[in-house]
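$ ./design --mode recover --in tokens.txt
reading tokens...
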């Protein structure tokens, strides 16, 4: 399980034989050449027309989506197959449409721990297979058994060569349907999650992300945050109850992407998952709740001694809709213009023009009854008020003036290019298809993604920002050494809190 804002490690390069690359030796020829070219009198080579100039932009290539085949087994399981002949690989995803939004009150982390335990042992061919043996069985197929937990998602996945695809599906089916969910594995998974959270709680950015979720969503399922205290309340009975309640065929999907035949995949699914009995009771539901922002527009979290301040602003975003496609693309482009990459408005203002941070960006999420855009940056303590002001101003400015044609075209090209890249690998394409299923959206609309983006105008984006991001709807969090930020914070609509008190609030009541 990954806690909010989990740290990522960076690794250096290595040679094929395992020896580290000598960076200074690799760069020495380039450095010598650069020094020679800089010496006075060194002859400069004239550019060759048509060779040394950068290439001219080319016409955009068409985005070709593979055929998508969707069917349903008698027990309610959805099967989606995307054939990709030529490369003998198959990516499997077996998932249910339930995640942390179904966690019991005061026990945030049940869904995430359940997902983790799906890979920690299963009942297979009439006997219990513990976690190490299950991992070896997956490795023997040339793959790795992975699990994931997210909003409206608990999943298992594997990528293997085509001849081993049926055996991999059998393993996934057993792991999802018959996990051992043992006390010992739960204790280990819980301890690892607590350790990860303790590390995250030393990072202003991670703390700000946790606080902002509660600040914007309030006391709703999507405002719940995993803390060490909430994890400590979770027992094996909670995990087993989550599995029993939500892991059922009429709440599940099997996605196969790769060098496979759709009819053959359906036969495999019927063989390994067709005997999975549908529950006699109707599928439970989690009541969709819109955001309930906290009364205070600004929350200041004091972390004395930390090196930087994290600044985050939340704004309303689109709910996950089953309606028209165009509003979804307008929202995506509005987010891209504000904080989607190096050329975004936030990064231009915060990093490039003012030098206040190494980077500022935004991301957006859509939930059944509402959505949240979050803008974020880290900066010096004394600069935190200025960064917050810039974020407010940029959100407002997009509603006042539409992006220029060049600005909009750059964002459209970036999103379309990212979409096209996701079609290139079996694993990323499986994730794209899975996202459509989670949001209850038709698979066929993926064919129109690029065209829909190009149909969005600057006026559409401006209207979206003006409607969605009024000043009164914004909520902000600043986490850092408040003693070093000065007294530049507004008194009205602001609440100050220490980290320890914040954690008690986020933990919830048992």
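writing sequence...
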């Amino acid at each position: 399980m990954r806690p909010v804002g989990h740290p990522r490690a960076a690794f250096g390069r290595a040679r094929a034989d395992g020896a580290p690359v000598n960076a200074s030796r690799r760069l020495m020829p380039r450095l010598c050449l650069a020094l020679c070219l800089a010496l006075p009198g060194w002859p400069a080579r004239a550019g060759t027309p048509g060779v040394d100039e950068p290439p001219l932009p080319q016409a955009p290539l068409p985005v070709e989506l593979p055929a998508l085949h969707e069917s349903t087994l008698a027990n309610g399981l959805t099967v989606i197959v995307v054939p990709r002949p030529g490369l003998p690989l198959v990516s499997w995803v077996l998932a249910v449409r339930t995640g942390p939004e179904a966690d019991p009150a005061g026990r945030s982390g049940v869904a995430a721990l359940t997902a983790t335990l799906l890979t920690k042992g299963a009942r297979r061919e009439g006997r219990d297979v513990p976690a190490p043996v299950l991992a070896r069985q997956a490795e023997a197929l040339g793959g790795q058994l992975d699990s994931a937990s997210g909003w409206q998602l608990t999943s298992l996945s594997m990528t293997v060569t085509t001849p081993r695809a049926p055996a991999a599906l059998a393993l996934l089916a057993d792991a999802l349907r018959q996990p051992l969910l043992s006390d010992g594995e739960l204790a280990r998974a819980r301890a690892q999650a607590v350790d990860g959270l303790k590390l995250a709680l030393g990072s202003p950015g991670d703390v700000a992300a946790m606080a902002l979720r509660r600040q914007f969503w309030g006391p709703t399922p999507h405002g719940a945050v995993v803390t060490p205290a909430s994890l400590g309340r979770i027992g094996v009975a909670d995990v087993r109850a989550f599995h029993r309640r939500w892991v059922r065929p009429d709440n599940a999907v099997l996605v196969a992407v790769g060098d496979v035949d759709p009819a053959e995949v359906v036969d495999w699914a019927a063989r390994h998952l067709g005997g999975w009995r549908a529950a006699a009771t109707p599928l439970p539901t989690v009541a969709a709740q819109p955001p309930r922002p906290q009364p205070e527009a600004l929350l200041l979290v004091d972390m004395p001694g930390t090196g930087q301040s994290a600044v985050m602003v939340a704004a309303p975003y689109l709910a996950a809709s089953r309606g028209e496609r165009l509003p979804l693309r307008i929202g995506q482009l509005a987010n891209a213009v504000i904080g989607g990459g190096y050329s975004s408005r936030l990064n231009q203002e915060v990093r490039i023009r003012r030098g206040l941070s190494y980077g500022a960006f935004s991301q957006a999420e859509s939930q059944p009854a509402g959505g949240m855009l979050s803008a974020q940056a880290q900066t010096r303590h004394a600069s935190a008020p200025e960064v917050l002001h810039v974020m407010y101003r940029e959100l407002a400015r997009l509603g006042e003036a539409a992006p220029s044609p060049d600005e909009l075209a750059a964002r459209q090209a970036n999103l379309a290019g990212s979409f096209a890249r996701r079609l290139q690998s079996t694993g990323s394409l499986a994730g794209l298809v899975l996202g459509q299923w989670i949001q209850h959206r038709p698979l066929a609309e993926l064919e129109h993604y690029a065209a829909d983006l190009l149909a969005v105008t600057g006026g559409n984006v401006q209207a979206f920002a003006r409607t969605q991001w009024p000043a009164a709807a914004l909520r902000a969090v600043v986490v850092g050494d408040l003693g070093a930020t000065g007294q530049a914070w507004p008194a009205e609509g602001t609440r100050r809190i220490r980290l320890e008190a914040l954690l008690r609030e986020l933990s919830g009541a048992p």
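exit 0
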